[in-house]
Every structure is written in structure tokens, then in C-alpha cells.
Amino acid sequence: MRKAAYLFCLLSPVFCLLLVSCDNQQIEVYRILKEKVALESGSPGLAPPAPDAKPAWTKPDGWQEEPLSEMRLGSFKVKGANGRSADISVTAFPGEAGGLASNVNRWRGQLQQPPLSEADLEKTIQKSDANGLECYFVDLQTPDNAANPSRILGAVIPQSDRTWFVKMTGDPTLLEEQRSKFQDFVRSFQFAKPAGDLATPPKTKSTNDKQ
Amino acid sequence: MTSNSILRWLKPLTSLKLTIFCLACAMVLVFVGTLDQVHIGIFEAQNRYFKSFFLYFTPSRTTLRIPWFPGGYVIGGLLLINLIAAHISRFKLSWKRAGILLVHSGLILLLVGQLLTGLFQIESQLRLNQGEAKNYSESFYHDELALIDTSGPDSDQVVSIPDSKLSPGNKIDLPVDSLRLVINDFYPNSVLINPSQLPSPGYPHLQLGPMAVSARVAKTYKQDERNMPSANVSLLRNGETVGTWSLASGFPRPISFELNGKSYQLVLRPKRYYKPFFVQLLQFSHDRYAGTEIPKNFSSRVRISDPTAESGRETLIFMNNPLRYRGLTFYQAGFDNNDTTSILQVVKNPSWLLPYISCGIIIFGLLVQFSMHLIGFMRRRVIA
Questions:
Q1: Are the Cβ atoms of A47 and B129 closer than 8 angstroms?
Q2: Would you say the pTM of this structure is higher than 0.80?
Q3: Do A96 and A159 belong together in one domain?
Q4: Residues of B in Cβ contact (< 8 Å) with A161
Q5: Is the interface score ipTM higher than 0.85?
Q6: Has residue A182 been placed in a domain?
Q7: Are B116 and B350 in contact (CB under 8 A)?
Q8: Three-state DSSP class for residue B147
Q9: Do the domain assignments include residue A58?
């Protein structure tokens, strides 16, 4: 009995050492309920996740809703004559998302247009304050000799915690026809007033921070 | 083997000199580890100094790893063996020694508890916007490459490959649909930039899209920064390539594709830990002392919705008042987005009670030991 106790006492640290040598980072296979199903099967008190300060908007007639993705908070498609189509996306990124100039230059790059300085960009950006909503419109197009002509109608809406981008991409003539609908859509955005002190900079903070 | 021969064999392990040596090594380890924590952060310091067998030295221009000092596992393991061996060889079970035995048993339990904590404790973060509900938390330190079969009507099958397996050149056979994953390239940390921002065209980068690349940067060890790995992977089925993609944890947009009539998504993201219940943030409060910006209190009112429970449970989490639910502890850890996002630290530690139990045993043992001495002393005085 005593011998067995000796062995147990000596082998247990060895077992512990073997345990720590094991690779506990293994490939795992598991099933999860789809988010919608999981939320519905939760307790009756659980409401579906509130939209992340998502604004209310009015979808123009003729725009077809498309499935959302992790990036797209709104997604639409509009079809024109002769198989022409345009894609509309609504996205949002924290803070200034790189600033207005860099984002417009990013869109210019997508249309094979060279970047412009901030002073030159200002001339191409149209500011709007309709319905108390500050937003910036741009209308960009591929160079005249481009093989695949394309156009972007873009809108940037800065908010206190994040910047919203509405972008319509597609056939230049179809976008010209849809221009007023696009602008009406952007101006229909209504944001809920965020809680908290707006003067506080949007930065992750630890509760251990002094201030 | 007789008991005597075992005792002879055990003798060097029972030495008090070994105890002193281990305690001295532990002091050096704690001192050096604490100093280095300034440079490499608490997580890396814990892994390098305390959750390791040895500290290693790598001579310049080599990949050799030369052990130069015992790590936490070796020192802790030797102390444990030393303590147990001393018990076996020196102590005999008797009432007179009950106190000492209890104290030492408490110490052994404390050491074992710390080992189990190191092995099985999982820390993650639950980031919730006001009104949002989630049934998973995310690791702050680890990432995963997740292959998700989204074909099922009600549920998705997830194959999670830990970041430790994502070494360039690694070939991983996945336990689903005879798929094989080949890691072409892997950056432990990267930044998302425009291709025009690359220092040179040859700078190590992965093309994520026409206007976005993921450029390799040095790993960060700062407390408030996270490493954002990127990878270029190929998926093969029966030797044929299904696709090759570049993925970045800092841009966790899933890649969707169809294979064999099934819909799949592939994403590199912070490692997720799913729970059998939902946590919904009802309100986050950041109270300040009147007229100042000095924080007075942080609190999150949350609702737990568990399909196995009859009704949802509402509770308030605030500093030093965590929520304990189904083996998990939720602490208030941070906030974001102008006080509309709350960050909760989620800790799963199956052995969280062991330190309390071992301290209780040690205190009880000390009381027994001192009481017995006191009673003996008083008896001798009465006789005298």
C-alpha cells in the first residue's frame, strides 16, 4: 500500500509535466446555430440584436435589395435597359476612416483616375446640408478612352463615431438616370442620436485608465 | 523494489537545499520576467518565462535555441516533487504532525492549482454595442482560420484551424470532405494599406483586393495593441486546387465559394469561443465625478438569455463585481465608441476554486500547528 502511495506521489508530477507538454492547440470541428435561428431559439425576453446605430433610410422605387455581408450594411441593385446594371453599397467605418480626401482618391483609383491634392479635390466634392444631414457627394468616371467605362456616385456622411459611405457603381448612362434617386436616398438617412459624451475621442479604453 | 531502496533513490529529491535552490531560481525568474514584461507585454512574458520549461538563448545569425535557465514549469515541477518526496521520506502520519501535513498539502494543492490554471484557463473578450447580443467571445491573442460550411438550413459547421498551425509550407488535412489546406505564406502581424503606400514593390505583402494589400510588419507586444496576421492559403480537394486566397485578420471578410454542391466561407479572424447562451448589452454607463473627467464607475447592464433557462436574467456588471455564469466570469474591462460599446473580459478557469481551498487548508493547518504548540506549552507551565 505504502509502495503504491510512493509511486503515485512520484508519478503525479511526471504526469503533470507530460500534460504541459501536450499541444492543446488542435483543429476543432463544431456546429453552431445560424445567427437568426440561434436568436429565435433564445429565451423569449431576447430581442434581436439592435442595429449598430444603423440609420433609417427610404429605398427608392426600382432598387432591389441584395443580401448583406459583413462589410455591407445596405446593399442594392438597380437594372436598366439593355442589361445594364448598377450596384449600391452602404458601409460604415470607425472614426474618420482615413479622411474624405483619401477615400475619394481611393475611388478615383478604382476608375483609373490619378489621385488629386486636397485643394483640387475640394472642387470636385459637393457639400450638402439638406435635412440637417452633413454629407459630401462625388461623381467620378473612368477616363474617356477607357475600355470598360464605369462611374461612381459616392456620398460620405461623417457621424460622431463613424463615417458612412454610400457608393453606386455601374454603367455611366444608367448612373446619370439614377443620380436624383441616389441623392434622395442619401438625404433620407436618419441617424439616432448616439448616447454618451460626444467630446470624448472614439478610442478603446481600459477601465484601468485613470481618465 | 523495496521501500528502503525507493527512499535511497528519493533522498536527493527531499533535500532542503533543492527547495532553497528552486526558490532562488523562482525569485530570479520573477525578477527577470517582470523587467522583460516592459518590452514584451504580460502575455508574452508569461509564456516565455513562466509557462515554459527553459529560457532559451539564440546566438545571432543562427536558429539554435540554447536553454540557459529553468523556466516556470521546471522550477514549479521540481518544487512539487521536492515537497511530495520530503513528505514521503520524512513525515509519518500522526496527530502531532497533522498541522504540518495540512500546511504542506495546501501548498501542494496551490502549486497543482496554478498548473491547472495555466493549462486550462481561457481568457477572451466580449465586445458588445448597446443593444447587441452575442453568443461568442473572441481571443485577444490568438486567431483562427475558419472554414464554415453554410449549406445547412439551421446550423453551420465550423472547422477552426488555430494560428499556431499556419506556418508557411504547412499542409493540413482537414477532417471534412477530403480537403487539404496549404499555407503558402503567413505574416504574424500585418497592416492593411493601399498598394501605393508600400515602401517598395518588393516589400513582403499579400494582395487582398485591387486597392488593398496586407503588408508584413514586426510583431507587437504592446498591451493595448493586437497582432493582425495575414495568410495566403490554397484549398485542395483530391489533389486539385479549389482556390487560392489572401486573408487578413484585420479585415475579416469571409471568402465565399461553392464546392461539391455545398456553400463554404473561409475567414481569418480572432479565435472565437461560442457559448450555449446569449449575452445582450442593455446599457453601458461611464459615470464621472461631477465637474471632472475622472471616472467614478463603469458598469454594463446585460441580459443573459439561455435556451435551457425559463426566462432571461438581467444583471449589472461593474468594477470588482463580475458576473459568474456557467463556469465563466465576465469582468468589466473596457469601453469604446463614445461609451456605446462595452468590452467584457471573459475568463473560463475550471480550477478557480483551488487557490481558495488551498489557502483555507494552509490557514487551518497553521492554526492546528500553533494551537497544539500553545496547548503543550501551557500544559508544561501548569505542571511546572
A1: no
A2: no
A3: yes
A4: 337-338, 340
A5: no
A6: yes
A7: yes
A8: strand
A9: no
